[in-house]
Design a protein that fits this description.
The chain is an all-alpha fold. The protein has one domain. Helix content is 65%, strand content 0%. It has 2 helices and no strands. α1 crosses α2. The longest helix is centred in the middle third of the chain and has 18 residues.
Length: 46
């Protein structure tokens, strides 16, 4: 179950997340939410 959380993200980090999101959308030709991008990145790093 997903949980809504509010966080503050630095502008530089936000840009990197959005680039990751855009690459995923282009590569797989799918919709890919910002939340999904953050979750994927966190799962890989934790």
């Amino acid at each position: 179950m997903a949980k809504r959380v509010t966080i503050m993200i630095d502008d530089e980090l936000d840009k990197k997340i959005r680039i990751h999101q855009a690459k995923k959308m282009q590569k797989e030709n799918i919709t890919y939410s910002y939340s999904k991008a953050i979750n994927e990145i966190l799962k890989k790093s934790i």
